[in-house]
Amino acid sequence: MKRLRIEISAVGEFPWRGAVIANHLGYMDIVAFAALHPCVFVAKAEMESWPVLGWMTTMVGTVYVARGHGGSAAKARYGMQSAMAEGLPVVFFPEGTTTDGSTLLKFHAGLLAQAMASGFPVTAAHVHYSLGAGNAKGASVENDVCYWGDAKLVPHIFRFLGLREVKVEVRFAEKSIQFSDAALHRKLAALEARAAVLELAEQGESAGVCG
Known about the structure:
Elements lengths: L6 E5 L7 E4 L5 H9 L3 E5 L8 H7 L3 E3 L6 H14 L4 E3 L17 H8 L4 E10 L9 H5 L7 H9 L4 E7 L13 H21 L5
Parallel strand pairs: 1-7, 2-5, 2-6, 3-4, 3-5
Antiparallel strand pairs: 6-7
């Protein structure tokens, strides 16, 4: 982050235990969270083979999950519980994919259910990027910072490296999510978790950061 001159700030405190869930805008999300606090990630198995980023995520102890494969849920729970037991918060992105930041997709319940079953708290977070004035005309957070859709990884990385004055804010909820009794149902838990992240986004908008 320092070498790339990326300015990172946190609003609230990174929880020292349990799971952290957030919106997902691209590969820099992982770098941002890791720069703020030692943590472990849960990510899709394909990421392990990505150039550079695969090495980075592996070195920070990422738990890779192959969706749709037998035993993936059990592997995810074991990996999360092992990290949490060692005092490391676990970060994952319930949207399951990345966006340009204009919307927050439906949350998938699988990993969230595994985190809740572990008995540790789940805390919401929200990631927001912005660019300074020193960038080329046409440069944007949506296309040059966020990595989503059918964008090609290597060309995107080179575009990102050409940016100036990149700022990232990670906003953390003051308390862990207090799931309702009904949230024992996985889908309802996903709705409540998404609402918690949306609330943080709205706080950022009120503060003049997001949007």
